[in-house]
Every structure is written in C-alpha cells, then in structure tokens.
Design a protein that fits this description.
Blueprint: H1 5-19, H2 29-36, H3 40-52, E1 56-59, E2 65-68, H4 77-84, H5 100-119, H6 123-126
Antiparallel strand pairs: 1-2
Helix pairs in contact: 1-2, 1-3, 1-4
C-alpha cells in the first residue's frame, strides 16, 4: 500500500501529540519536527489541515504550540486520512463496459472494509508506548 508522505507525517505528528496529551500542554512545532525528523515547514501545512478538521488546536505566540482537539481515544485514523489525504478513501473505478459494474462493486467492498479498519484504529492505540519487539535467535 502506498501512503503519501503527507499522510505519514500527519500520523506521526498526531501520535506524538497523543503521547503527551493532557488537554492543556502545548507542543511546539520545532519539538514535533525534531522528534519525528520531519521538515517544520511541511509539518506546519499538515497541522493546518488537521486544525481545520478540528483534530488539533493551535495557539500563537512565544508560548504557543499544538495540542489535540479532543482525547486521543476519540480520534480515528480515518479522521486523520479524511483531513490530509481524502483521495485515499475514494473509489476511482468506473462502472463502464460489460464488467464495469461488478468490478466497481468489488472495489467498493474493499474500500468499505478499508474504511472500517481505519475507523477501528484510534490515535490512542497508535501512540501507545509499547516496547520494541523481541527477537530470539
């Protein structure tokens, strides 16, 4: 599956905000960019998309920064996708030709399952501080 860099960075930024979410503490753009090794200029554009969708809040000024717009367990991966890369959820198969309708229905079914999967993943689960996997030799 090909995920856009914009969507990947949005997910990483949201997971980072969720790790430190207490409803009050702001995270500076520079800190987010550094922790996730992303460009601050690109990240601010992404955060603006997320802010317009109501997923993050921002405060201006010297003591400003970003925080989640609501608790992490109430934000789904689908909401993040809708905010920054909604084309990922659209079915672009045309219903033309003899087989067009059946092919489109099949891809719509796949799309529906994908969207349900995205609905089942919360930001809280993405930000959980699980330990690294153990590999045994």
């Amino acid at each position: 599956m090909k995920i856009s860099q914009k969507l990947e960075y949005a997910c990483r930024a949201m997971a980072q905000l969720a790790k430190y979410h207490d409803g009050r503490t702001l995270t500076r753009l520079e800190d987010l960019a550094q922790r996730e090794a992303v460009s601050g200029n690109f990240l601010v554009q992404i955060l603006n998309d997320l802010r317009r969708a109501g997923l993050v809040e921002s405060r201006r000024g010297k003591a400003g920064g970003y925080l989640l717009g609501r608790p992490a367990n109430q934000i789904t991966l689908r909401q993040v996708v809708d905010a920054v890369d909604p084309a990922l959820l659209q079915c672009s198969v045309t219903p033309e030709g003899d087989s067009g309708q059946s092919v489109r229905r099949a891809w719509e079914q796949v799309s529906s399952g994908f969207q349900q999967s995205l609905d089942g993943i919360t930001l809280d689960s993405m930000a959980s501080k699980q330990s690294d996997p153990m590999f045994y030799i």
